[in-house]
Write a structure and sequence with these properties.
mainly alpha, D-Maltodextrin-Binding Protein, domain 2, 2 domains
């Protein structure tokens, strides 16, 4: 008979070993920054300390700030920035924390080590999640906040301690500062605390809510302060909603699932099967029945909230998911189905409880083996839908980034200055080893507005890097027309299925 502390230490050691191995594997294969969003998250953190204007608004608007703030601890190091590890390491730590909190929560909720090890095994041995935790993506950090919230609410049910309430509040705060599903779960957690509290219900809920609400309230205030619109992240020009409406205005087809529950469910469940594998799905289906029998409701209900949030978002039209089986070979946002992985893992863990304590270790091993079987049958990254999405969708970007960065690394001299846009082009400067403080982009608000409005007066950078037809390209052309500095095109990079990249250099006079 082992102690719960030893069991937790064993689970934690396994999580650390898995995380470090996956991180090294992905880094050595050069996959760390395949996701365009991974590149963006990394560079948002970098621009907070490596910029011409260290303004507060470098924090951004649509993406929530906690992952970028965590990345600040490492992104100052040029080597870690250029490799992407500055953003991948916090993500990996989030994975370890998520697995540890999930183990602890199920250990308390079921009083079964077998159930807890089964849950964390299904969760942590998923190759799609292991890939994401090796990149600067936000999902692992979000999962850490959500599983911590589950742990502290379960612990509160057991201990009724104020410490558990405070822990739940800060866990919800972390989740709500990472991804928007963290906002969605707060009222449900508050309701559970009210039900679980034996007395002083209002005080317990008030304490939890006062801490948890800091995240959403801060972000609303931040958007109001910077953009005079508290909902800028939701309906501003860079929001998912506005981008979608723009695509509809261009007569593109609506997203699958837009105001269609049947199609939204079809796409999500298909993506879930691709992300989690048939073994985990089948084990979870049986586990749901076991949970009803054993009356283990809250962990499953809580774990179901994030996938419900994504289904709702798909139905509202703001969050599309494309999978190759259903959308002409396209991949997009396949990682969103990983929000349901804790639900499958918890259900699979509960399934062990239908057997006698003596048999549970063997049943646990069988369930975990079934969950990882699809990945062992086809041990190739091509079978990992999240990796495949990042590889397919980044091929063109990686090609032109490599060409442009190689050119600038040879031609650019520090201090000359680059006029450019913040986005995919930022990867060019990271790869070339050019500090972001050498560039003027949209994040340098006053400099950007001045240069784009009156390039004849304020555009003085020696170089300009543009996507053909964008604001930078048009500004450079207007500068010549208005009698300002003259730029000539020194490099044009054309890659199939990608926009043309233009590199301009100012004529010396």
């Amino acid at each position: 008979m082992t102690s719960p502390r030893f069991e937790f230490a064993l689970a934690l050691a396994g999580l650390i070993a898995l995380s470090a191995s996956a991180l090294a594997f992905v880094h050595l294969h050069g996959w760390t920054l395949y996701y365009g969003d991974a590149e963006a998250h990394l560079n948002i953190a970098r621009r907070m300390i490596d910029t011409r204007t260290r303004d507060y608004d470098q924090l951004g608007t649509v993406w929530l700030p906690l992952p970028h703030l965590l990345t600040l601890a490492l992104v100052w190091n040029d080597s870690l920035w250029r490799s992407g590890l500055a953003g991948a390491i916090p993500s990996a730590l989030g994975f370890v924390a998520a697995g540890a909190f999930l183990f602890a929560a199920i250990r308390i909720a079921t009083a079964s080590a077998a159930a807890a090890f089964t849950t964390v095994g299904i969760f942590a041995l998923n190759p799609n999640l292991l890939y994401l935790q090796s990149t600067p993506m936000t999902e692992p950090v979000s999962l850490a906040g959500l599983t911590a919230l589950l742990y502290f609410t379960v612990r509160f049910r057991r201990t009724h301690s104020w410490g558990a309430i405070v822990g739940a509040g800060f866990a919800a705060l972390a989740a709500s500062m990472t991804r928007y599903e963290g906002w969605f779960v707060i009222p449900f957690a508050a309701a559970y605390i009210a039900v679980a509290a034996p007395s002083r219900k209002l005080a317990a809920v008030a304490l939890f809510t006062s801490i948890a609400a800091i995240g959403p309230l801060f972000w609303l205030a931040h958007n109001w302060y910077i953009y005079s619109n508290a909902l800028e992240f939701f309906n501003g020009p860079y929001s998912a909603k506005s981008i979608y409406q723009l695509s509809l205005a261009r007569h593109l087809q609506p997203y699958p699932g837009d105001h269609d529950w049947r199609k939204a469910w079809l796409f999500y469940r298909t993506d879930l099967r691709l992300c989690a594998g048939w073994g985990a799905v089948v084990a979870a289906m049986a586990g749901f029945l076991a949970a009803i029998w054993k009356r283990i409701f809250w962990p499953l209900f809580f774990a179901a909230l994030p996938p419900v949030f994504y289904l709702w978002s798909m139905h509202s039209g703001g969050t599309p998911i494309y999978v190759p089986e259903l959308w002409f070979g396209s991949y997009y946002n396949t990682r969103y189905a990983l929000a349901a992985l804790p639900l499958l893992a918890v259900a699979g863990g509960v399934l062990t409880l239908v057997t006698s304590p003596r048999l549970r270790p063997y049943v646990a091993a069988a369930i975990v083996a079934a969950a990882v079987a699809p990945w062992l049958v086809r041990p190739s990254p091509d079978a990992w839908v999240c990796w495949k999405e990042s590889e397919v969708n980044s091929a063109a970007r990686r090609a032109w980034t490599g060409e442009a960065s190689a050119f600038l690394a040879k031609q650019y001299q520090l201090g000359q200055g680059i006029f450019t846009s913040f986005g995919d082009l930022t990867g060019v400067f990271r790869e070339a080893g050019i500090p972001l403080s050498e560039t003027v982009h949209q994040g340098n608000v006053l400099d950007w507005i001045s240069a784009t409005a009156r390039p004849d007066l304020f555009l003085r950078q020696r170089w300009a890097v543009a996507i053909a037809g964008d604001d930078v390209s048009r500004t450079v052309q207007r500068a010549t027309e208005q009698g300002g500095p003259r730029y000539h095109l020194v490099q044009s990079i054309a890659v199939p299925r990608a926009p043309v990249i233009e590199i301009y250099k100012r004529d010396d006079t």
